[in-house]
């Protein structure tokens, strides 16, 4: 009986029973191709387990085999949960030019300086190019080995011969197996490369870091099973024109997934930022209209962020320009603020200082107060932080982590705060802070802009 045909997306591996012009999984055009599905027959029969590899009582398993070893880069260890575990496979994904190779080169260098052997496989650059970068970021070491190779078989042979203590592959989409059809980076090739490397890492207990490319929408390129095969999936993010880089754990079998590592990308490499809040504040001591502070939670880390807004008369169609903020939330807040003052015929510009991207609702109140301050032309109270979510009715809602946010604001020298009503229940307030609880946006504006009246809206 003939096999039923199916259609496979060459970009993400999604299968469908009929041909489609656009893949419903990754939304790419022209990537769905006809293929013959593999026959699903059970060939493997049960075998008696060897004496040395049978089931073991959980109380007799040596937990030291899964203990993390520090990479001596604090922010990298923070996200991984303490360091790299022997045999663990980490997938590091990020946009081109964000600094993935630079970060991993420094990780390899620090590991090699502790007496370990590190194998850095580069499929995108030559060994000479990697050396030039290593000299620039001071990542030279005698036990850091480079291999500019794209053949999977040769890479596996090098691993068997060298037996490294750390393996870095940059990137998984550049390696290819001669035994598998398809171009490097295709679904079949990525699946085979990942499976072979993971098998070698587990067999030799080698901590391994794979660099992965991302698609236009920010997801990891290749089959979705790649993220399921590895132990840790990290996303390296950052604006091209900003020095800040953030490392997030999307999946982590050895630690939390709500940690965020911060790095400063300088000419000499990546530097860990244990206290990055200063990057998101203006250095001017003068109070400017349209500026308000807030505290955002990135994972479990609170960060003090400054939001700035500018409102001007529109010359033609009103513009809404946003940088570092969610445009949809700004449109909602402008609609709520429009009940109090006229903004529909104005140009509105809103941005965060330092290129920080903020999307959580806890920053709604700070954005609304910055818009109100820009509308009146009067600055807010000095050293004021605003924390709260705004509903469509103008009510200010409570947000989680209030105690942590207020402690971070007080540590940065903030003395005034405006929060939602009821936010201080069972929450310790720092002695140096005066906190006002407000029920709605109108009350918060009156509190933060005393003796100031918003321009009334028409009608």
From TrEMBL:
Family annotation (PANTHER family): DNA REPAIR PROTEIN RADA (PTHR32472), DNA REPAIR PROTEIN RADA-LIKE PROTEIN (PTHR32472:SF10)
CDD domains (alphabetical)? RadA_SMS_N
Q: What does this protein do?
A: DNA-dependent ATPase involved in processing of recombination intermediates, plays a role in repairing DNA breaks. Stimulates the branch migration of RecA-mediated strand transfer reactions, allowing the 3' invading strand to extend heteroduplex DNA faster. Binds ssDNA in the presence of ADP but not other nucleotides, has ATPase activity that is stimulated by ssDNA and various branched DNA structures, but inhibited by SSB. Does not have RecA's homology-searching function.
Name listed for the protein in its UniProt record: DNA repair protein RadA
A Pfam family annotated for this chain is AAA_25
Q: Where is the RecA family profile domain?
A: 65-214
Binding of ATP, residues:
94-101
Q: Could you tell me which InterPro entries the record lists for this protein? A: AAA+_ATPase, DNA_repair_RadA, P-loop_NTPase, RecA_ATP-bd, Ribosomal_Su5_D2-typ_SF, Ribsml_uS5_D2-typ_fold_subgr, Rubredoxin_2
Q: Tell me the gene name.
A: radA
Short motif RadA KNRFG motif, span = 251-255
Can you tell me which family this protein belongs to?
Belongs to the RecA family. RadA subfamily.
Region annotation (Lon-protease-like) ranges: 347-459
Q: Which organism is it from?
A: Brevibacterium jeotgali
The lineage is: Bacteria, Bacillati, Actinomycetota, Actinomycetes, Micrococcales
Free-text domain note: The middle region has homology to RecA with ATPase motifs including the RadA KNRFG motif, while the C-terminus is homologous to Lon protease.
